[in-house]
Hints:
By secondary structure, the chain is an alpha/beta fold. It has helices spanning 15-28, 40-49, 68-75, 91-100, 110-114, 116-194, 203-227, 239-256, 276-293, 324-327, 346-356; strands at residues 6-11, 32-37, 54-58, 60-61, 64-65, 82-86, 104-107, 235-237, 260-264, 272-274, 299-306, 310-317, 360-366, 370-378.
Amino acid sequence: MIHNKNNILLVEDNTEHSDLIQRAFKSRKDNMTQILAENVETARNVMSKMQIDLLISDLILPDGKGVDFLKFSEKESKAFPVLIITSQGDEVAAVEAMKLGAMDYIIKSPETIEDLPRISTRVMRDWDNIIRRKKAEEELKSHQDFLEKLVEERTKQLIQSERLAATGRLAASMAHEINNPLQGITTHLEIIKRFLPENFKKIKNYNIVKENVEKIGNIVKQMLDIYRNSSREKSSININNLISKVVSLVENQVRINAIDLKENLDESLPDILGWQQQLHQVILNLLLNAIDNVEQGGVIKVSTSENDKSIIIKVEDNGKGIPHEDIVHIFDAFYSEKKDAGVGLGLFVCNGLVRNHNGEIIVTSEEGKGSTFTIILPKGK
């Protein structure tokens, strides 16, 4: 790098030659400070103590060769250009020096020594250009890697989004098909009940059938609610108040399980426009999942914050976490990590309701350490 004042380390064991070289630099009055070393050991000692901008070295030295400094530069990560000079026209040595990284190789003569300050300036300028080019290439490679990673992530998100949308459309279509005969079954169950005797011994079995039909009806309703256009207009929602109401609903479960439920709500949070019942359902579902996932005495944190464009809601727990293989399916319909309970619609419904608000829901989890569900809702309309 060319500075206002550059340190030039001259490694030359021939006193006559070193005097001539130093006089050549002084006669030019360039902004270059010459430091003299007579051998490799002395030169290395100098390099360990100060920044060197250019090293000019004789090819043959009492305790080594000038090309040894190229290896030292690479090993010690002290990058500087090396200019080899010699009184011998050894082309093989010149090729070796250039292969190892020497910037130039010149034969000592009165003319070349007199021109050495100009050559040194050119070598440092060329070196500076090489360093800048390498830095630019590294930055370009870094940007390229970042963009490739970003494209890969966005592609995965797009595929996931399309897969969820397709699954949702299929689920909604199935729900419509199921809903019609289900309504017929419900109606006929009520008709049948009218004709049952008061002391009907199998009334328990009848009630079991009715309860399960109602469960199917609730599942169908959840699926349809996501894709059915709301007949009501959006209203102004205070997210913090909504969260407080939801928290009050789970206080009993939290107390029974000795769970520490912490709220960290940003009081300056602005209201948003949306469907309050839908967001109520999302937050309640996430809290209930968190309660199911933490051990007795566990911790659940609910927080809100904002940035320039979004309202952010986080539900964190220190529970069992979600297995890595389940993360990619966590928002799929009918997929549940709970092998003994649930139909796998809770998070699927949550994702659909959040998307109704042009938002997104993101999950991060580490098995054995807990999970964080982040809801991002746009500000404004």
